[in-house]
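Person: Show me a sequence?

Helper:
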Amino acid sequence: MTVLVLDRDVREAERIHELLEDRGHSCLIARDVEEAEWLLRVARIDALALGIEVRGRPALDWLEELCARRPAVAARTVVLTTRLLEPDEVRRIQTCGAGFLQQPVGFEELEYAIHHGAPGSARLRDEERPSAGRRQRPMRTPRRKAKPEGTAD
């Protein structure tokens, strides 16, 4: 699978590039939307790791345009964010079939999201998420110590 990485933060883009290539994925980095458009024309791109902040134009405007032209790539897009998203931003991402993850992101989470949808993706049910297999420990209520026989409450 070839993943295109587009993020305003060059170091984060390089980190994601390394994470993906270390696991055998082919990965390309674009510096801005214009370069990303060129790479989409000349290379076979299967998925996109898209920073919420990119150079050239607003990331979600570009994602919506990409969704109209290349819905398969848009559906394998993970929007990476360092901040909480507004409800309208979440809706726009999900309308494109994409998902979102909070940065910094680990490899397993990113790879799973690219292949199956990110936690913010409308196409991913709760039971399919990587964390679904991990159970939270149930809260325990404190036990009362047994009182010695013959004492009143």
The chain has six helices and five strands. The two ends are 68 Å apart (CA to CA). The helical segments are 10-22, 33-42, 59-69, 71-75, 87-95, 107-116.
